[in-house]
Amino acid sequence: MTKLRSASSTYTLASHIMILLTFSLLIPIITPISYAQIPEKHAELIRLLLMREKAEEAMSMGDPEGASLNAGKAALMTALLAKEESDPELQTYFKGLEAMLRAQESVYRAIGLFEQSGEQVPASSGVCRSIHLATANRKKAQDLLANPSSSGNPLFHDLLMKLQEWGETIEEIKTDLICTNN
Fold this sequence. Notes:
The chain contains 6 helices and no strands. By secondary structure, it is mainly alpha-helical.
């Protein structure tokens, strides 16, 4: 009897593994079909989120040039979404998001330039100009989203919080790299 149980449990385990393998092989086939059914606008939003995630991942892997490139691509996608959007409030949101992504792109570029220059403090004028551009883009985003009519929208509130965090980050980098106001 004991042998029968172990054989039957082995059979059950093997059948479960086969089912899992079958489903894992079908996932790549199922996924494109579901993406094909997503409206174009939503697909662009998904690509935008993936591009932002790639930028963060590249930065965490120590690749500021790749992070800058991906943040720039995400900003470009956001600009296209803003251009196509008919709702003025969402259009403002996308324009603010684009400016924030441009600020991130400039910060990542500055970090890459700083690393390439041998990490000498005070930073070069090119690094400081990139930091200054990041400050200008962050301020642009802040101004776009400071509209009183959009103050109740949670999307705007979340983006304003992220802008606040980026403002602090930019100021810390400016201080660390000894970049004066240009």
